Amino acid sequence: MQHSPIQPTPDATPPDTNGKKATIRNFFANNWIPLIIFSIFTYIAICFFLDVQNISHEHLNKTQQLLQEIKEGRDAANETIKEIDSLRNSFSIHGLLLILSLIILVSCFSKPIMKLLNEYPQRVFVSSIALGGILAFSIPQYLYSYKYIGETKDITTSLLTVTGGILAVFTLLKTHQKSELEREQLDTQKQKDARDHIRQLHNSYSDRFDKAVTELNSGKSKDAFAAVYKLVHLADDWLEYKDLSDNKEDQNKLKNRAQKETQTIIDILCKYIRTMPDEYTEKDIESLDATTQDKLKNESEVRRLIFSEISDRSSTVIIKKDEISTIPGTWSNFDFDFSRAPIFYPLNAITIEKGNFSSAKFYSKANFDKTTFIQTADFRTATFTQPVSFWEANFAQTADFRTATFTQPVRFWEANFTRAVSFWGADFAQRADFSAATFSSNVDFEDATFKRFEPTFTADYWGKTQFSVHTAQEDYDFSVHSGSKPIQLGKAELDGIERQIPVGTVLFDPDSGRRSEPAKPIEESDNQGETPSK
User: Fold this and answer.
1) What residues contact 428, with CB distance under 8 A and at least 6 apart?
2) What is the predicted pLDDT for the residue at 531?
């Protein structure tokens, strides 16, 4: 019976010899420099070894020759002794060079040795003991055989001592390595625990946030009042991120998260300010009869509280010798938006970091007495339906009242405008009183309309308004709109500098504090040329 030959199975594949060759080629291509260095020092080590062997053989012959001469009673030749000393010196030098070459060769395998040391520390330790013991006995025997030494006991003891010292250093290194490993593991565990703590803390923050926002929008004033405290203190907790981690990368992440969450809380509070109270319409707020005022009292307290808490976290203003400096607060770098807000409560004696009240509507008496505006005070197109007071208000930056509408009297008694102020296109239906105000920079009343009364800049009780002598004449613009009551201008002079400013007001020097005499009226012909109307 014939049998068909055994066929190879489909899965059987020949050895991949090309792959092995490619691997070898890649190895030599990537490591040709270390291989050349290894080959050179291997050659040098072999040469030194052969030289040591030749020197040792010659030393042995010369020593035996010298001993034979001494045994036969002949005087030892000085030349033979000198040759032996020379051979000993040569042996020492070549031996040292051989040892250095071997050290360099061993260093070429430092990575594999360290890998073995990490993976098999006990085996390396035992091998080191065995190698040290072998060298402690073989080296003295070698030196004795070639007549370099007599007794081997002392040098064997020395070599064993050296071996013990090396082993002690090895043990110390392993102990240090173990300690470092334990420390790294401990640090890793601490970081893990810290991250777990931060995660749990942030989860609790999220729960607190959800509950506070629900209470704020519940429509109940008591709940909303409490929610404001909860939200601002939650923002404070978010900003206390520096104590949560010592890791710089983690701190950067925490900082970004804290700023984002704090801005979210501020946005929610600002949105509450911009929203009309529940169950009230603009018509209800405009009437503000006794019943409406009583009902809105609690709501006013909630909204006033929001501004008060923002004020506590805003910059601190320091005034020394008419110079204003600020110390940033924890919320100074965040954004605030009160535009189009319905304001029916006083905002006096607080600090407003970023007063964006553009297009806001003030339904009750707008009271900003002794309020400080740190950055730009933006009241563009704002509407004031009731009397307005900015008594002793402090504007640290630009004050912008362009196209604002004042339907009732407005007072800027003793207000301090540190930077430019603009009333361009503003509409004053009743009296506007700027008595004792200080204008330290540009002033713009262009196109402003004073419908019934000329603006007041001097009063016997409050004193005279003052304008900075450092501001150029072209930066003082008192050209009101056509049909408006005029601003009567006069001339004042200080330190030889003349300015045309409202009659009765004075020039002052912000540096020295000196003031001019009150501005005297300009002649009628000059007045027409100096106060154009549009």
Assistant:
1) 406, 410, 448, 449, 450, 451, 453, 455
2) 46
Tokens 């291997």 identify what position? Answer: 42
∠ CA 77-52-36, nearest 5°, is 155
Return the beta strands (E) in 357-456 as ranges.
Answer: 361-362, 366-367, 372-373, 377-378, 383-384, 388-389, 394-395, 399-400, 405-406, 410-411, 416-417, 421-422, 427-428, 432-433, 438-439, 443-444, 449-450
Element (H, E) at 214: helix 153-216
Q: Is the pLDDT of residue 115 over 50?
A: yes
CA distances in angstroms from 517 to 169, 361, 440, 506, listed in the order given:
91, 40, 17, 6
The mean pLDDT value for 107-130 works out to: 71
Residue 331 or 127, more confident: 331
148 or 336, greater pLDDT: 336
Number of H helices, E strands in the chain: 11, 30
pLDDT of residue 23: 65
CB contact set of 224 (below 8 Å; sequence gap of 6+)? 215, 216, 217, 218, 272, 299, 302
Residues facing residue 89 across a β-bridge? none
* Partners of 456 in beta bridges: 433
pLDDT digits (tens, 9 = 90+) for 363-404: 889 999 999 999 999 999 999 999 999 999 999 999 999 999
